[in-house]
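Interim report, section 4.2 (structural modelling).
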Amino acid sequence: MIKLFSLKGQQKDGAANSKSGMGPKKASAAQLRITKDINELNLPKTCLTEFPDPDDLLTFKLIICPDEGFYKGGRFTFSFKVGQGYPHEPPKVKCDTMVYHPNIDLEGNVCLNILREDWKPVLTISSIVYGLQFLFLEPNPEDPLNKDAAEVLQNNRRLFEQNVAKAMRGGYVGTTYFERCLK
Amino acid sequence: MSIQSQISTESHPGEKTKKYDRQLRLWGDHGQSALEMAKVCLVNANATGTEIMKNLILPGVGSFTIIDDNKVGGEDVGNNFFLDKDSIGKSRAHAATEFLLELNEDVNGDFIEESVDNLLQNNPTFFNNFTVVIACGLTEKSLLDLANLLWDNDIPLLVCRSYGLIGYLRIVLKEHTVIESHPDSALDDLRLDSPFPGLSDYCKNLDLEAMSKKDHSHTPWLVILYKFIQDWKRSHNGELPKNYKEKNQLKELIREGIRKSENGVPEQEDNFDEAIRHVNTALTHTKVPSEVQQIFDDPCCRQLTSESKPFWILARAVQEFVANEGSGSLPLRGNIPDMTADSERYIQLQNVYRDQSNQDICTVTNYIQTLLQSLGRDEPLSVSSEHRSPSSSPGQPQDNISDSDIKLFCRNASFLRVIRTRSLSQEYAASCSKITDLASRLDNTDEDDELVHYIMLRVVDRFRTEFNRYPGAEPDSMEPDIAKLKGCLCKMLQEWGVNPICVKDDFVHEYCRYGASELHSVAAFMGGAAAQEVIKMIVCQFIPVNNTFIYNAMKQSSLSVEL
Amino acid sequence: MACDWPNRWSHLQKILERSGPYAHPDFEAGQEMLPFIKDNIKVLVIGAGGLGCELLKDLGLMGFMNIDVIDMDTIDLSNLNRQFLFRKQDVGKTKADVAAAFINKRIPGCKVTPHFAKIQDFGEEFYRGFHIVVCGLDSIIARRWINGMLVSLLRYNDDQTLDQSSVIPMVDGGTEGFKGNARVIFPGMTACIECTLELYPPQVNFPMCTIAHTPRLPEHCIEYVKVLLWPQEKPFGDDVGIDGDDPSHIKWIYQKSIARADDYSIPGVTYRLTQGVIKRIIPAVASTNAIIAAACATEVLKIASSCCQQLNNYVNFNDTEGIYTYTFEAEKKDNCSSCSQVPQQLRFSEDDKLQDVVEYLQESAAYQLRAPGIVTMVNGKNKTLYMSTVKSIEEATKDNLKKTLSELGLLNGQRIHVADSTTPNSLLFHLQLASSMEKE
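Predicted structure of the assembly:
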């Protein structure tokens, strides 16, 4: 059992009624954890991060330039927003680049298990980076977000490959226009 | 806990629905109407009493009546939130009723400034109108008198008390039936060990081999497991995997069923992983839970009369189903958990279970009809779709049984509970007291056994009877009372045939320190716990404690024990 | 006290003025105890909701006369089934103000000071002013924040031992339906919120592809409308997000969810369910809140008076089936990212450059860090001083290396966090800045 400190004689004369204009002096738990995550971010050579404000480690971009697979030569930007709930809650990740991909929809929503249902506090930003990178190497047509792309990949890999190339060069796939995203 | 199960389909919630939203998600609209019909009586508006009432009035109990002949004293206002300084010297029943009524305009309340002893003598039928009676701050004799009367009239009683850092709660009722017990974790009712025809047909029509890759990886695990179990049975003389080793073999077979890519690497198929994960639970033999079997074996179920409560008629009908069409199993619950699957086949599978469930309910309905006819209760089954729980007015044999009652009963058949407590006079009678047996476990001077507080509370009551005050209640009385209380304890333990060393002197000292004080936070804790038990009794959902609960605020620990 | 009347405190006095075998060894029974609690002890209650209302009542009736309460919410109709200090005519008013006014009126002499604010609006000076903090919160983020604040108030002696007079105990309660828990935290001494983060159940998030294409449950249909359809259709304008309290928003989502469910023949979408999913509503009843708040209030009394041993240190409660409690000792983690950080002293002069600090951390035998990432807070905002491992940050911060510590705005006593791959957690340093060349 802990030895209890004595409250007696301890006067508490804080400025108990004034809001502090100084703000906190110590970083939040989420902030500390993300600092650690970012400092130890061991990026594969196909990935790089951009911090628009280096003082704000909770908001950043990840750029993936796959060097093999369907998406070789492309350049895809994801925006990360890490909340104060981190790592109890996963970061919010969206794809800023419009991409023809079975697991990324045209609004930039990404279907990656560890971003939602399988997130655990032991996972890190690195885990997500590897997960995203894997999506470009092995798009998964079985659990699609972009159903059209998934169907093409399933039925006609050649056509899928052509569509990806077309989209990355900038142009229409079906009725959807894709901005050029070759690096 | 399936808290969303009884949610109504209203689209424009009224003010009441909004006000009670957070609790309607727990006990549903039908639970709420039962609560709003209930009439509760509180004996003595001490701190524990008003805290209980607060937690009944806020959720909207129908009405309450406070019986209390005490005048408010300075110490009452000190620990009771529902009195104020101006109440001092006035009727405690009156003052508390007024403050409590401010809590909820939907609730009616009145009071009677009279002692329970007087009421028992002059107006014994007074209590018959109440759904539940709550007793606080009574002497042992008055409590036993009240308890006897209520027992004879079949009115549920809850006794609650806060004594220093200890709380005590006792439920006294002849019979309480629960249909919706909302278990926190219940195994799904999937019948993979004894599949019904609809399930077999559905699974047989799906051919895993012939499926596209996508369909293969989105076949519900239920179907996968069904197929592998059937294969297993074919090669094992129709028997299921029996032990750990065989279950692992089955898991291995399922693992081999995962599709492989061109270069022989197994694909990621979540549904197969789920099937493997569910082997152990799904192979659990479907059987009637022992609590439910006891209900079937109960004389109330075996010998129905024209006075039988709907619960027992329903139970009997389900029992007949189990004995005949059910081949030993309860009516199918009819829902399945979420699983990796495409929408279409998941919904189909859900309908397969639902259809069988509805068919079982139909069969049970026929039994009900036959039973009612044979009991001479020939009123037609009400076919109104309006939802009403058969439990909403327990003990009313003239209730008819609606289709939705039957449905609710069948879907909850594995969770049925019946609670019957002993009466207080049985508990207190030397001839059938359980305390002697129970107290023997204290011989090992187990520090953590809260049973000692039951003994101590009985002892301080003995002290009260003998000296007309509680030990340590008066200023400067603590030290002299320690010896007297020790004397009471020894006498009492001797009468019970319990070894006196099993209660340490420290407890005697600590109880003299308490001096029957009612600490507000202990009263508030017990007020919450007791109110929740009363709500369980009223809405006939969740499972009340059987029958005594002891709270130890020193360690924030507790004990439930049947006395 | 002037407003007392005869026997007002007689129940409480028995416990406080008499000694007993189960009291804490430090307990000094006597007539000084009650006035001490009434006049000296300052308690902060965080949250004036289901737990908060109960806590204020419980503490006020247990002799705590100096209470501050913080709550950022206003009263909603759905609070009234348990937040018993509020009435229908109070809907829309601030919880903290209404709760404080009620208690101050009902319990003579009790001074509850309300703060309609976020906990983050206050700084160290404010929190240092309390002896005990009691939390009745429904947010993990807020719990973690106040936990971090109380840990940051800890002081350490020269020999790295904790200065116990800097410890502000925290009593934390939580409820969900018929379940609840209460715990006592002595920051720096016993398990803190971060030590036990895994005790909190994770948020339910359905897979995106399920929501988008293979819904099976009514919840999937509602999430579809919330996550995918709303941003597409922007039904209430371009920049209007979902407001769970706006009935027209819920109604729109409800109708679209019904349509979605009909497409897939999924039964069970209701208005109530829609609202529950959108607002992530946690069911709540008066009784559980009363129970958990009462357990917390008892612990506050024990801490303030030592009249009994404190809860050691966590109790779980559930009264769905019978009444169940389970008490256990949550373990303090040796490598807790929050409470295990004993700040180290870093002595530099104002004219030293950040480069000197980095080199010291790399070369000093005590640390031998590989690639330290260094952050701090300046004027309440995060500042990344230097991080070499991320190219874009390295470029943006490398100029800092050449700046002196005073040029960087660092002050004496500044807290500096250093992350490095050689340590499991960030290290916390207190910068001791000398104006002259005093560096050892």
